[in-house]
User: Which sequence fits this backbone?
C-alpha cells in the first residue's frame, strides 16, 4: 500500500508546494484581483516552509516504488533553492505592481516551478526526472514571457520555449536510449547495467539536455537573450534557485547514474566547463546591458561549477555545493541590485547608468560591491572560498587544463566585475534614483552579508555542512 | 512476415517524416505528418502495443495534427517566402543529419546484441491496455499526477499569456438578461403632437 | 581570575565603543568621548583588580581551579596555568586552525592591566589635552580601537590572532600619528612608521609561516608544548620526524636550525614594532602625533609588544643560541645608542622618545640573556613612569601653547608646580633611584637593577653577550640619568627663555596644529598649569611610578616569581639567571647607583649651575655632538642607500615594465581578449535556427568524442 510516511520523508516539501499551488488556484479563482498581492507573500511563505520542511527531513528516504529517492546531498540543494525562490518571489511584488502586471498566477507559476525543481532533485528514475524538468521548464517559459505586452519579453519566452523544447527532446531521446540499452529507467539499475556504447550515447544526449538547463556552453546561447528580455524578478529567479537545483541534478545524474563510467564523461564535462568559462568571461566583457552581462557571468560560473562535477563524486560533490550556494546567493543579490535601481523613465539596465551610485546610495553601492567582489572570487569575501574549493577539487582530480582555464577566466572576469565597481564608485552620477522597495533592499543587504561577509567567518562551517551533505551521495 | 511489415511501415514513417519538412505547401506537410503518426501507430501494433497505437492515433492525429492543420490554414503565412533563405543551409543540415544518424546507428549496432530478447509489450497481463492499467495508478501514480500538474502549468500559462479582458467586447450576460424587467427596457410616453418628447 | 564575562568585557568593549565614532555626527562628540572613556576606564579598573587580586592570592592560592586548563610541562614539572575562552572558529583549512580566543594567563593579565590602565588614563587626559581639537570623536574612537587591537594582540592564543592585533595596532598607530593629517610632517611621519613597520612585519609573517611549516600548527599551546618537550615533528613536505630542537630546515638554500630561523624571523617583527636598532627610525618621528598618543602607543603599550612577544615565546628562545644572542646584542646596542642620541635632542618629546627606545633595549637584552621575568617587570614599571613623563611633557606643551623646543622653555617650575612634581617623580623613577639591599626605591630602581644584575649573572655564566650587554646597560644608565636631568633643568629651571621670544611670530611659525591659534588667543602667553582632568592621570601614574616596583618586585622577579608566572614564561632547566643574580658581587649592586648619581651631578653642573656649557658644546659642533644630534645620521644613510636605491630600482623596473612587459603582456593580452570577446558576441545572431544548430552541433561533437574514445578503446 501507499506508505505515507515515506512519501512525506522523501518528497514532503514538493507535495506541500503542489498542495499550496492548487489551493492558490482555487483561492485565486474566487478572489480574483484581490489575491494578486497577497499571493506573493503567501507563496513566499509556502516556499520558506518548504525549505524548513526539507531540513526537517534532511536524511531523506525513498517512496513511490523507487521513483523518488532523496538524501542529504539533494536536500541541501532543496533547502537553498527554496529559500532563494522564496526571496525571489517576495521581492518581485514592487516591480510587478509598477508594471501593472501583478497577477496571482505569477506566484502560482513560481510555486509550480519550485515543485519541478524539487522533483528533479528527488528523482531516482528517468521518468520522474523528465516530468520534473518539464514542469520546471514550462513554468519558466511562461514566466519569461510574463510581460506579454513587451515585445522583448515575448521574444525571450518564445526563444526559450523553442530551444528548451529542443533540449527537452534531446534529454528525452537520451533517456530513452539509456532505457533501451539498460532495460530500466531507475537510476540504480542503470548504474549497475553494463555500460554499452549505445547507453553512453544516450548519456551524451542527456548531458546536452541538462547542460542546456544549466546554461553551460555551447548550450548557453539562449541565456543572454532570455536574461535581457525577461522581466527582472523572473531573471533573478532563473539565476538563483533553478540554477542551484539544475546543477545539483546534473551532478546527481552524473554521479549516481553514471558514476562508474566517469572516464567516459569526464572529458566531455571538462570541455563544456572550459567552453562555458571562456564564453562566459569573454562574452561579458563587451556587454553594456547589466542583465545580459550577468547572464554571461552566470554562464562562466556554471563552468566553474562543472569543474567540480568533472572532479567526480568523492572530490567534487562538497565543493560543488559550497560554490553553488555562495554563487546563487550572490547572484540573487546582484539581480536584486538591478531591481533596486530605478529611474524616472523605468528600470536602469545599462551599466553606464550606474554611475555615481556610491554617492547617491552608499549602502546599496557597498552591498553590491561586496557581492561583486564575492562573485569575482576576491578574498576575503565568501565567493573566494567557493572558487577555491572548486579549484582544489579540480587540481586533486588532476584536471589541470580546465583548472588553468578556470584561473584565466577568473582573471578575465575581473575585467567586467571591476568595471562595474569603477562605474559605481568613481563615475559621475547621471540622474536621480527612485525609492527602492523594502524587501528588495533587505534581500540585497542580506545576500551581501551572507555571501560576502558571514561565510568569510563561517566558511568552514559551510564546507562542513556541504561535506556531510555530499556524503549522502555515497550512502 | 512481421519483419517485412516492420520494414515496410518503417520506410513509410521515414519517407513521410522527410516529406513533412520538404513539402512546399504547409497543408501538405501536416498531411504528411498525419501519415507519419499513423505509420508509427502501425509499428506499435506490430510489437503488440495496440493500446498505445490507438492512443497515438487519437491524441496526435485526432487532436494535435488537426490543430496544426487549423493553425496552418487560418494563419496566412507565406511559408514559401519564409523558407527561401533556409535553402542555403540544406547541404550542411543534411550532412549533420547523416552524421547524427550514423553515430546512433553505429552505437546501436554495437550495443544491441541482447536487446531484442527482453522486450514484452504487456508484462504480467493479457493485453497491452491491461498492463498499462495495472501500473498507471499504482506504481506510476506519482508520474500520472505530475503529468496532471504539467497540464495545469500549461493551462495557467496559456491563460496568463493570452487571456485579455476587453471591456469593449460585447458578451452575453445571462444573469443580467434574465433579471431584466419590462420597466428597464422601455417606458411609455405620451407625446403631444408637434412637440416631441 | 575574573569571570569570563568580565574578561570579555575588558577585551571586546573597547572595540565596540570605538565604532560609536562612526556615528559621531548623529550622537555628538561628547557622547563618543564619554562612552569610550567610561568603557576603557572601567576595563582598566577591572584589569587592575584582576592583577591585584591575582598577586594577593599568590600566597595560599587555591583559586577557581575549574577555570584553569592546567597541564603539566614534562621537563620542569611546572604547572602551566592558563584559561582560554574560545569565541569562535576563524580559519579552518586542513591543519591550519585558528580561533578567535582570549587567552588568560599571567602574561596577558599583566599586559591587560598595563594596556587598559594606561589607556583609561590617557582617555581621561585627552579630555583636557584635545579640548580644542575639532575632531575629538575621531581621536577617541582611534584610541579605543587601538586599545582593542592591543588587547587582541596580548590575549591571542594563536599566531594569526596575534598577527591581527599586531597589524591592528600598526593601523591605529598610523592613524594616530597622522591624526593632524592636514599637515605634512605628521603625514610623513605616519607613512614612515607604517613603512618601517612593514619591514618588521615581513619578518613576523615569515616567522609565522616558518612556525606553521615546522609545527603544522599556529596555536601557541601545541607549538610551545612541542618545544618544551622536544617533541619530534614532521615539517610540511618532510617525510621523517625529528626532535624539534635539533631540526634543520632549509632557508634561503642553507640548512639551518629550525628554532633559530623562527626565533630570528619573529624577532625581526619585534624589532620593527619595538623600534630596535636599524628599525628604530620611525619612533622619534612618531612624536608628530598628539602627546597622549605618544604616551599610550609609543611609550607604554604598542612598542612593548615586541618584548611581550619575546617573553611569550620564551620556550623557543630558551633553545636558541644565535637568536637569543641577536636579541641581547640588538637590545644592548639600542639601549646605548638611543641614550646617546637622547642627550643631544632639543625637542622635549624626542628626548623622551629616545629614552623609550633605550629602555626597550634594556628589556630586550635582559630577555635575550634569559631573564624574561625581569624584562616583563621593566615593561610593567616602565609603562607607568614613561607614560607619566609623556603626559607630563604633554602638560608642559599644553601649558606652553604647543611649544616643544626645550631651548624655549625654562623656569616653568613656578608656573606649573604640579606638573613639575609629576615630572620629577617620573625622572627619579626612570633613572632608577633607590638604595640597594632595602625596599626603598622608585619603580625603575627595582626593575632596572633586576635587569643589570641578571645580565651580569648571565655574563658570568657565559651566556652569549651577557658581559657586553651589562656594560652597555651600565653606560646607558649613566646617560639616562644625564639626559633625564638635562630635560628637567632645561624645562623647569633656569631663565624664562620663552619671554625673550616674540611669541607671536614664533607662534605663527609653529602653528602646525591648526588649533593653537584659538588656544593662544584664549589666554595670554604665560605658561599655565593644566586643568584637573589632565592632572589626575598624572597623579595616578605618579603613584604607579613610585610604588609599582616595590609592590610587585616579589611577585615578578623575586621569591614568588614561579607561582606568579605559573608557566606563562618558560625557563629551561639549566637557566638560573634569575636566581644567580642574588649571588653577584656587591659592586654590581652599587654600580648603577653610582653612575646614576654621576650622571645627575654632571647634568646639574652643566645645565643648572653653568647653564651655558650645554649650549656651548652644541654650538661648537664637535663631531661627537653632531653625531648624536643627527641621530648617528641614520635617516641620512637610509635616505641615501635604501630609499634612493629602491627608488632607482623602482624606476628601472617601472620603465622596463611599461615598455617590455606591459607591451607584450597585459596590453597584448587585453587586445587579444577584446578581439575575441567581440568575435564571440557576433555568435549571438538572435536567429533561433542558428541557436538550435549550435545545440545539435554540440551533441554531435560530443557524440563524436565519445565514439572516438570508444573506438580507441576497442
Assistant:
Amino acid at each position: 500500500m501507499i506508505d505515507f510516511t515515506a512519501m512525506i520523508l522523501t518528497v514532503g516539501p514538493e507535495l506541500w508546494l503542489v498542495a499550496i499551488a492548487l489551493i492558490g488556484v482555487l483561492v485565486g479563482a474566487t478572489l480574483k484581483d484581490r489575491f494578486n498581492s497577497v499571493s506573493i507573500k503567501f507563496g513566499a511563505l509556502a516556499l520558506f516552509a518548504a525549505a524548513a520542511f526539507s531540513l526537517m527531513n534532511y536524511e531523506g528516504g525513498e517512496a513511490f516504488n523507487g521513483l523518488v529517492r532523496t538524501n542529504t546531498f539533494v536536500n541541501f540543494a532543496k533547502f537553498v533553492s527554496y529559500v532563494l525562490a522564496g526571496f525571489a518571489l517576495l521581492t518581485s511584488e514592487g516591480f510587478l505592481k509598477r508594471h501593472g502586471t501583478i497577477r496571482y498566477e505569477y506566484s502560482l507559476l513560481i510555486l509550480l516551478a519550485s515543485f519541478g525543481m524539487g522533483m528533479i532533485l528527488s528523482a531516482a528514475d528517468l521518468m520522474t526526472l523528465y516530468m520534473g524538468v518539464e514542469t520546471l521548464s514550462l513554468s519558466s517559459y511562461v514566466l519569461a514571457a510574463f510581460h506579454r505586452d513587451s515585445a522583448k519579453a515575448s521574444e525571450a519566452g518564445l526563444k526559450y520555449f523553442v530551444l528548451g523544447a529542443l533540449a527537452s527532446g534531446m534529454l528525452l531521446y537520451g533517456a530513452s536510449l539509456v532505457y533501451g540499452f539498460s532495460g530500466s529507467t531507475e537510476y540504480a539499475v542503470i548504474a549497475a547495467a553494463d555500460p554499452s556504447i549505445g547507453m553512453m550515447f544516450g548519456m551524451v544526449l542527456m548531458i546536452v539536455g541538462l547542460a542546456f538547463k544549466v546554461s553551460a556552453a555551447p548550450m548557453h546561447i539562449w541565456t543572454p537573450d532570455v536574461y535581457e528580455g525577461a522581466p527582472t524578478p523572473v531573471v533573478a529567479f532563473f539565476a538563483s534557485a533553478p540554477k542551484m537545483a539544475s546543477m545539483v541534478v546534473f551532478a546527481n545524474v552524473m554521479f549516481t547514474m553514471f558514476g562508474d563510467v566517469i572516464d567516459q564523461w569526464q572529458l566531455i564535462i571538462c570541455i563544456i566547463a572550459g567552453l562555458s568559462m571562456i564564453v562566459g568571461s569573454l562574452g561579458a566583457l563587451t556587454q553594456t546591458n547589466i542583465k545580459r552581462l550577468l547572464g554571461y557571468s552566470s554562464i562562466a560560473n556554471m563552468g566553474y561549477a562543472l569543474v567540480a562535477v568533472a572532479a567526480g563524486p568523492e572530490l567534487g560533490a562538497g565543493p560543488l555545493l559550497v560554490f553553488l550556494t555562495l554563487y546563487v546567493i550572490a547572484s540573487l543579490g546582484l539581480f536584486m541590485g538591478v531591481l533596486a535601481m530605478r529611474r524616472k523613465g523605468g528600470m536602469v539596465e545599462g551599466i553606464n547608468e550606474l554611475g555615481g551610485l556610491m554617492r547617491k546610495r552608499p549602502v546599496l553601492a557597498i552591498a553590491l560591491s561586496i557581492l561583486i567582489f564575492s562573485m569575482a572570487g576576491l578574498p576575503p569575501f565568501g565567493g573566494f572560498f567557493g572558487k577555491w574549493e572548486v579549484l582544489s577539487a579540480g587540481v586533486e582530480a588532476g584536471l589541470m587544463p580546465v583548472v588553468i582555464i578556470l584561473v584565466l577566466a577568473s582573471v578575465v572576469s575581473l575585467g567586467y566585475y571591476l568595471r562595474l565597481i569603477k562605474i559605481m564608485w568613481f563615475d559621475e552620477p547621471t540622474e536621480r534614483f527612485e525609492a527602492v522597495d523594502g524587501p528588495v533592499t533587505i534581500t540585497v543587504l542580506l545576500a551581501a552579508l551572507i555571501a560576502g561577509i558571514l561565510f568569510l567567518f563561517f566558511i568552514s562551517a559551510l564546507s562542513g555542512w556541504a561535506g556531510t551533505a555530499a556524503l549522502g551521495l555515497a550512502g | 512476415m512481421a519483419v517485412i511489415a516492420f520494414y515496410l511501415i518503417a520506410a513509410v514513417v521515414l519517407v513521410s517524416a522527410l516529406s513533412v519538412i520538404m513539402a512546399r505547401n504547409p497543408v501538405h506537410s501536416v498531411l504528411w505528418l498525419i501519415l507519419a503518426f499513423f505509420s508509427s501507430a502501425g509499428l506499435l501494433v506490430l510489437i503488440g502495443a495496440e493500446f498505445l497505437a490507438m492512443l497515438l492515433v487519437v491524441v496526435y492525429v485526432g487532436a494535435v495534427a488537426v490543430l496544426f492543420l487549423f493553425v496552418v490554414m487560418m494563419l496566412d503565412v507565406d511559408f514559401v517566402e519564409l523558407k527561401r533563405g533556409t535553402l542555403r543551409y540544406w547541404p550542411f543540415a543534411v550532412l549533420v543529419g547523416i552524421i547524427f544518424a550514423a553515430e546512433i546507428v553505429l552505437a546501436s549496432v554495437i550495443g544491441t546484441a541482447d536487446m531484442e530478447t527482453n522486450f514484452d509489450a504487456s508484462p504480467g497481463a493479457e493485453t497491452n491496455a491491461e498492463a498499462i492499467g495495472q501500473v498507471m495508478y499504482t506504481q506510476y501514480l506519482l508520474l500520472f499526477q505530475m503529468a496532471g500538474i504539467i497540464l495545469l502549468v500549461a493551462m495557467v500559462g496559456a491563460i496568463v499569456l493570452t487571456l485579455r479582458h476587453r471591456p469593449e467586447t460585447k458578451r452575453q450576460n445571462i444573469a443580467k438578461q434574465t433579471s431584466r424587467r419590462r420597466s428597464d427596457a422601455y417606458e411609455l410616453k405620451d407625446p403631444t403632437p408637434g412637440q416631441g418628447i | 581570575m575574573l569571570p569570563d564575562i568580565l574578561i570579555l568585557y575588558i577585551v571586546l568593549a573597547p572595540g565596540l565603543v570605538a565604532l560609536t565614532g562612526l556615528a559621531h555626527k548623529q550622537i555628538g562628540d561628547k557622547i563618543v568621548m564619554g562612552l569610550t572613556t567610561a568603557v576603557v576606564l572601567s576595563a582598566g579598573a577591572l584589569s587592575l583588580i584582576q592583577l591585584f587580586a591575582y598577586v594577593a592570592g599568590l600566597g595560599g592560592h587555591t583559586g577557581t581551579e575549574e577555570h584553569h586548563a592546567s597541564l603539566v610541562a614534562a621537563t620542569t614539572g611546572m604547572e602551566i596555568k592558563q584559561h582560554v575562552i574560545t569565541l569562535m572558529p576563524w580559519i579552518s583549512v586542513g591543519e591550519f586552525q585558528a580561533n578567535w580566543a582570549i587567552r588568560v594567563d599571567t602574561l596577558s593579565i599583566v599586559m591587560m592591566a598595563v594596556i587598559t590602565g594606561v589607556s583609561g588614563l590617557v582617555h581621561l587626559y585627552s579630555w583636557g589635552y584635545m579640548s580644542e581639537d575639532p575632531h575629538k570623536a575621531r581621536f577617541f574612537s582611534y584610541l579605543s580601537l587601538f586599545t582593542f587591537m592591543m588587547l587582541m594582540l596580548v590575549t591571542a592564543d594563536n599566531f594569526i590572532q596575534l598577527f591581527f592585533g599586531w597589524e591592528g595596532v600598526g593601523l591605529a598607530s598610523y592613524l594616530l600619528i597622522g591624526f593632524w593629517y592636514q599637515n605634512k610632517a605628521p603625514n610623513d611621519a605616519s607613512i614612515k612608521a607604517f613603512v618601517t613597520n612593514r619591514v618588521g612585519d615581513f619578518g613576523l609573517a615569515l616567522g609565522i609561516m616558518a612556525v606553521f611549516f615546522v609545527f603544522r600548527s599556529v596555536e601557541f599551546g601545541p607549538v610551545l608544548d612541542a618545544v618544551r618537550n622536544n617533541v619530534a615533528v614532521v615539517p610540511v613536505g618532510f617525510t621523517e620526524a625529528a626532535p624539534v630542537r635539533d631540526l634543520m630546515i632549509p632557508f634561503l638554500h642553507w640548512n639551518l636550525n629550525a628554532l633559530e630561523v623562527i626565533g630570528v624571523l619573529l624577532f625581526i617583527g619585534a624589532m620593527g614594532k619595538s623600534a630596535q636598532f636599524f628599525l628604530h627610525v620611525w619612533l622619534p618621528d612618531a612624536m608628530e602625533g598628539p602627546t597622549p598618543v605618544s604616551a599610550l602607543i609609543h611609550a607604554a603599550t604598542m612598542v612593548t609588544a615586541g618584548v611581550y612577544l619575546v617573553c611569550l615565546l620564551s620556550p623557543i628562545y630558551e633553545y636558541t643560541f644565535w637568536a637569543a644572542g641577536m636579541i641581547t646584542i640588538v637590545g644592548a646596542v639600542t639601549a646605548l645608542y638611543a641614550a646617546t642620541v637622547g642627550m643631544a635632542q632639543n625637542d622635549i618629546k624626542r628626548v623622551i622618545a629616545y629614552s623609550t627606545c633605550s629602555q626597550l633595549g634594556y628589556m630586550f637584552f635582559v630577555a635575550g640573556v634569559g631573564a624574561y621575568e625581569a624584562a616583563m617587570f621593566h615593561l610593567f614599571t616602565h609603562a607607568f613612569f614613561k607614560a607619566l613623563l609623556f603626559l607630563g611633557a604633554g602638560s608642559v606643551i599644553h601649558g606652553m601653547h604647543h611649544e616643544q623646543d626645550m631651548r624655549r622653555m625654562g623656569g616653568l617650575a613656578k608656573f606649573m608646580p604640579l606638573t613639575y612634581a609629576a615630572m620629577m617623580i617620573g625622572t627619579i623613577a626612570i633613572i632608577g633611584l633607590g638604595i640597594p639591599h632595602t625596599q626603598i626605591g622608585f619603580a625603575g630602581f627595582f626593575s632596572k637593577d633586576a635587569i643589570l644584575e641578571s645580565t651580569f649573572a648571565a655574563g658570568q655564566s657565559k651566556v652569549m653577550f651577557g658581559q657586553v650587554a651589562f656594560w652597555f646597560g651600565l653606560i646607558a644608565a649613566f646617560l639616562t640619568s644625564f639626559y633625564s636631568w638635562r630635560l628637567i633643568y632645561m624645562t623647569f629651571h633656569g631663565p624664562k627663555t620663552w619671554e625673550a621670544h616674540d611669541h607671536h611670530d614664533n607662534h605663527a611659525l609653529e602653528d602646525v596644529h591648526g588649533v593653537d591659534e584659538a588656544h593662544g588667543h584664549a589666554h595670554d602667553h604665560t605658561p599655565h598649569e593644566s586643568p584637573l582632568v589632565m592632572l589626575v592621570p598624572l597623579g595616578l601614574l605618579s603613584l604607579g611610578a613610585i610604588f609599582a616596583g616595590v609592590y610587585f618586585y616579589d611577585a615578578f622577579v623575586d621569591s614568588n616569581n614561579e607561582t606568579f608566572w605559573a608557566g606563562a614564561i618558560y625557563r629551561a632547566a639549566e637557566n638560573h639567571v634569575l636566581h644567580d643574580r642574588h649571588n653577584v658581587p656587591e659592586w654590581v649592586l652599587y654600580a648603577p647607583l653610582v653612575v646614576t648619581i654621576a650622571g645627575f651631578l654632571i647634568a646639574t653642573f652643566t645645565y643648572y649651575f653653568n647653564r651655558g656649557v650645554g649650549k656651548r658644546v652644541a654650538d661648537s659642533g664637535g663631531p661627537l655632538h653632531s653625531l648624536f644630534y643627527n641621530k648617528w645620521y641614520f635617516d641620512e644613510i637610509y635616505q641615501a642607500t635604501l630609499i634612493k636605491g629602491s627608488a632607482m630600482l623602482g624606476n628601472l623596473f617601472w620603465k622596463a615594465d611599461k615598455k617590455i612587459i606591459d607591451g607584450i603582456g597585459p596590453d597584448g593580452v587585453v587586445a587579444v581578449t577584446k578581439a575575441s570577446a567581440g568575435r564571440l558576441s557576433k555568435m549571438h545572431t538572435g536567429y533561433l535556427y542558428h541557436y538550435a544548430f549550435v545545440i545539435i552541433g554540440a551533441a554531435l561533437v560530443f557524440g563524436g568524442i565519445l565514439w572516438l574514445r570508444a573506438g580507441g578503446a576497442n
Q: What stands out?
A: Residues 184-215 of chain C form the longest helix (32 residues).
